[in-house]
Each structure stands twice: as C-alpha cells, then as structure tokens.
Amino acid sequence: MNFLAHLHLADCCQSDMAGNLLADFVRGDPYTQHVKPVADGIKLHRFVDGYIDAMPEVKACRYLFSDNTRRVSGIALDIVWDHFLAVHWQDFHPYSLEHFVQYAESIVRQYQSNLPERYVLMSARMWQQQWLIQYREKTSVERVLMRMAARRPKLHQLALCSEQIDDNYDELERVFHIVYPQVITATKQHRLTQR
Fold this sequence. Notes:
Helix content is about 70%, strand content about 0%. The protein has helices at about 5-10, 15-20, 35-55, 55-60, 75-85, 95-110, 115-130, 130-135, 140-150, 160-165, 170-195. α3 packs across α11 (about 170-195), α5 runs antiparallel to α9 (about 140-150) and α5 packs across α11 (about 170-195). It comes from Photobacterium indicum.
C-alpha cells in the first residue's frame, strides 16, 4: 500500500494519519521519537506493509512481473493498489476522494514535531501537486514509477514495470478487490490490540 491506502486505513480504524504517512521515513523505535498516537500510527503502517506482502494473492501477483523487475514488484504493486483504491474510492469511503484528501491534509499538517527533511519535502509536493487525486489516472502509475526510478538509482527497474502492469491490468484490478477488504479487516483488528 502507498500513501492513499495508508491514510484511508488510518481513517478506517481511527489511527493517527500523520504517523501512518510518516512511517516510511522513520527508522527504529517510533515510541522514542514521537508521541504515542503518532508512534501507534507508524506501527500500524508497518503492520499493514507486512500483512499485505505476506498475502498469497499478492505474492502470486509478483510473478506477473518479469525476472528483471520482480525484485521491485512489491513497490510497483503498492502504487497499483493506490491507483485502484482511487479508481474505486466510492466503494470504500462515503466522501469523495477530493474531500478526503483535503481532510487528510488538514489533519496531517497539524503534526510538526521531529519530522525528517525528506518527509517534509515529499509531503509538501504530495499535497501541492495533488498526487493522491492523480492516482485515479492510469498514466499516474507510470509517472510515479518513473519518478521513483529516477530518484533512487537502486530502484531503476521500476521504470520497466509499467508495461507489465498494463499487460496484467485486469488481473491486478481483480486481485485488488479480493485483497483490499481483507487488509481493511486485518487493520481494524490490529488497531484494537494497540489500545
């Protein structure tokens, strides 16, 4: 799952949105770096990442990618899942995507403590350029993957994933509808253990 899904899942189970968005930028024990609600959000994000990566349906999707891109296929799938969530947003949330993104931004911006510079720069661009709303467009998947490949040379194979996503688009969409409701349920159950 990528930014949109993590914010949506946080909203589904009343977890801290800033923590769920911040998680990829925090190393080590979040409870020594952030207040408990934010740290709980970071831990929830980590749970979601581990849960979805272990799902048999998601593991099978990785084999839709070629040998030379399979190493980065998990990252590519995270972007694809956000795309399908944006496309099918009304199936999962009562408010419009635009309304939700405005709401999420207003909540996330309230937390300004101990933020890594990379996160500050990323989040500023994300809100300004409306990445989460753009996820609805199929072309945004390729744009995001190309941007990530250019920014991080170790992930250069991401630039090659778009064609494989296009070739398997219908199958990936089918799997999303199986996987995402399970992720919501698991996230809600996990959240109950944090309280």
